[in-house]
Amino acid sequence: MGNTGDEQQRGTSFGSNAAGYAEHRPDYPREAIEWALEPVAGRSGLTVVDLGAGTGQLTKGLRAAGITVIAVEPDARMRDELVRNHDGVEAHLGSAEHIPLPDASVDAVLAGNAFHWFDQERAFPEIARVLRPGGVVAALWNDDDTRVDWIAGLVRIFGWDSTTSPTDRLRQHPLFTELAHTDFRHGQRCTTDSMVARMATLSPVLALPQERRDDLLDRIRRHLNEHPDTEKGEFDLPIRTTVTRAELRGSGD
Ligand SMILES: C[S@@+](CC[C@H](N)C(=O)[O-])C[C@H]1O[C@@H](n2cnc3c(N)ncnc32)[C@H](O)[C@@H]1O
């Protein structure tokens, strides 16, 4: 499952709006992080890599849970924004295919809304290399709940397929145990302005020429201003956080 040149370009487009990303993208529920790390929870001095860390949405939750985080992110603009927002965090330029850490040095590698950008054929062995025995790899995704009418309306405006499941996005790999999945309810308090600003951080929107991007964001604003659930200006955005995890197989497994 290698990424095409076009996907690679989109995967590194977020930095053109790093400040917007930091301000408007959601964090992750504590229970989702705890579930992801359950197989290594008892270890002392737990060290976790936030891979594809962006501006630190997942780093924030990990640090709040008292966990030592090493952020790894390929885009310097995103990494710099992360460092600005998270005092004293260890943050490296690197990618899922080249993690700048020694062999067997961390307990878990987590990725928030990022695993689908990785070249999984190269990423899994690289993640396995940096994990200690029995270490965890986990992918978390925050997805807007498209069963909600006003969000389904947004999807229609975008013309996107909203049916991708975690199993479509993350492949089973022989170095790791069978994938386990679960999901959690999450949410974000939004205003029309913040929702439009959040939409402006999505990679397909960042890829549009300015005129088409402005037109799309105008249509989103009109939709929010006209829908009964959002027209009053402040509303909850319902999010489903899905988590997929697996453990590094030992030589005897
Ligand atoms: C949608 S953002 C997610 C950021 C953050 N983890 C979050 O939860 O909001 C995807 C991030 O993955 C990074 N990325 C893209 N390709 C990558 C790769 N091959 N290895 C690691 N990170 C990658 C992008 O630069 C971007 O910061």
Fold and architecture overview:
By secondary structure, the chain is α/β, with parallel strands linked by helices. The chain has a single domain (5-146, 162-188, 236-247), classed as Vaccinia Virus protein VP39 (Rossmann fold). 37% of the residues lie in helices and 25% in strands. The chain is built from eleven helices and seven strands. Strands 3-2-1-4-5-7-6 form a seven-stranded mixed sheet. Strand 2 (68-73), helix 5 and strand 3 form a beta-alpha-beta unit. The relative contact order is 0.17. The model has no long low-confidence stretch (mean pLDDT 92). S-adenosylmethionine is lined by residues 11-12, 14, 25, 51-54, 57-58, 73-75, 78, 95-97, 112-114, 117-118. Belongs to the methyltransferase superfamily. Residues 1-16 have a biased composition (Polar residues).
